[in-house]
Specification:
With 185 residues, this protein is mostly helical. It has one domain. It starts with a helix and ends with a helix.
């Protein structure tokens, strides 16, 4: 475990606690975390995850702007819901993107576990977009990401990151429950 990985994991923990609580202040922590994780994942030859951090940086800037405009009276962010057709479209898009990105990483890089990493990356892209748009379904995707990421990061000896994703899994379940309640209120 490097000091950069440990710092990124600590920032990630702060970030997810604030996201679950629907606080707009999650975004400064997210921006710092993804900046550090870009380095960590590149060094671990998890190129999909390394490139994903650039995407996360941009989408976190958008999310910060969007959430700042979408606060309820009590200061928390309002929650939205996808239609059934939109859910199916997201599933199809993630599957197609995973297949395409996994093939590119397998064919053109020396990436470790290119297909596994691609699945995590594409689910994360969809999850981050849905999170930034305030859709509660983002938590379902984050649960899937966490279940895939924990063992991948462990086999790459990223123990602090694997442990962080175990915490993310618990927090994602908490987020799913909390956001569903907020959506109904």
């Amino acid at each position: 475990m490097s000091p950069i990985e440990l710092t990124a994991a600590a920032l990630g923990l702060a970030n997810i606690v604030l996201v679950v609580r629907r606080s707009v202040w999650n975004y400064p922590f997210a921006l710092a975390m993804v900046s550090l994780y870009g380095v960590v994942f590149f060094e671990a030859k998890l190129y999909s995850d390394a490139l994903l951090q650039l995407f996360f940086f941009a989408v976190n800037l958008y999310g910060w702007w969007n959430w700042s405009r979408s606060r309820a009276e009590q200061g928390e962010v309002r929650v939205e819901r996808l239609s059934g057709a939109a859910r199916l479209a997201w599933i199809a898009a993630v599957a197609a993107a995973t297949a395409g990105w996994g093939w590119l990483m397998h064919r053109h890089t020396d990436a470790a576990y290119p297909w596994w990493d691609a699945g995590i990356a594409m689910l994360s892209v969809a999850g981050q977009i849905l999170l930034s748009r305030r859709y509660w379904e983002n938590w379902v995707l984050w649960i899937a990401v966490d279940l895939l990421a924990i063992p991948l990061y462990a086999v790459r000896d990223l123990w602090a990151t694997s442990a962080l994703y175990a915490v993310f899994l618990a927090m994602s379940v908490w987020g799913l429950i909390g956001w569903r309640r907020a959506m109904r209120a």
